[in-house]
Fold:
Amino acid sequence: MSNQKKAKVDPRILRTKRMFKEALISLLTENGDQSKLTVQKIAERAELNRATFYLHYRDIEDLMEQMTDEILEELSEKILPHSDGQRPKGHSPLVSFLEHIYQHGALFHVMLENKDFRNRIFNILVEIILIKGEERKAKGNPFQLPTEIMASSTLGIVTWWVQAEMPYSPSFLAKQMILMMFSKKKE
Structure:
């Protein structure tokens, strides 16, 4: 049970990496085609030089991979139980999930086009639903739909929400999704 703190990172390195990430998102938002990106374009947009880019990243894919890993790790920490089995305090996992996407809207807008990224988001959604499903099962009210259908539906709604430039707040959207998926049928 060792609580190792992350090594303190030089704020200049954090700032430089943030500038490269923002430049990448900006360029992808403008033209949406990753194949037209170059390290030179990213460095120019970040107002840094290529040599600095290569101090931190092997190539553009490495930058995207690191950025994706960081954002999804943050997301998992906010919504999934910790190693001690305790869930993070705050909103429901769905609201926290949507708030995280809202906070990083530009990145999610670009990254939801990436198949690997979508698969990773789908897997996080499956974990959220499984956790919630166990809670509901313990209360004698199990889900009526298969987990994968609920995760796919949620991912579809989230994709629409991001592409529509998030016209609803995360909490409003979460309430609507819950009403849609969990309302009892009237016979």
In short: The longest helix spans residues 115-138. The radius of gyration is 19 Å.
